[in-house]
Known about the structure:
42% of the residues lie in helices and 28% in strands. The protein is α+β, with helices and mostly antiparallel strands. The protein has a single domain (2-75), classed as GMP Synthetase, Chain A, domain 3 (2-Layer Sandwich), CATH 3.30.300.20. A hairpin with a 2-residue loop joins strand 1 (20-26) and strand 2. The protein is globular and about 35 Å long. It holds the Pfam family KH_KhpA-B. A probable RNA chaperone. Forms a complex with KhpB which binds to cellular RNA and controls its expression. Plays a role in peptidoglycan (PG) homeostasis and cell length regulation. This is RNA-binding protein KhpA. InterPro entries: KH_dom-like_a/b, KH_sf_prok-type, KhpA.
Amino acid sequence: MKELVEILAKSLVDHPEKVEVTETKRDHTIILELHVSPDDMGKVIGKQGRIAKAIRTVVKAAATKENKRVVLEIIQ
């Protein structure tokens, strides 16, 4: 999951070297925190959050295949 989010985010931003994904596991849930440059926040979130929602949808679909629950948080 972590690698998937990292690949998607790096393809969207202007500063891919500043993209960082941290993974935390709690109970049956994986929490992924996506850190990007402040300049790239708009590109990752998109108009009305459409890109962020699309990224979350792809990650949740991949997690469902592995019977896991994933939460994606986008942090500046």
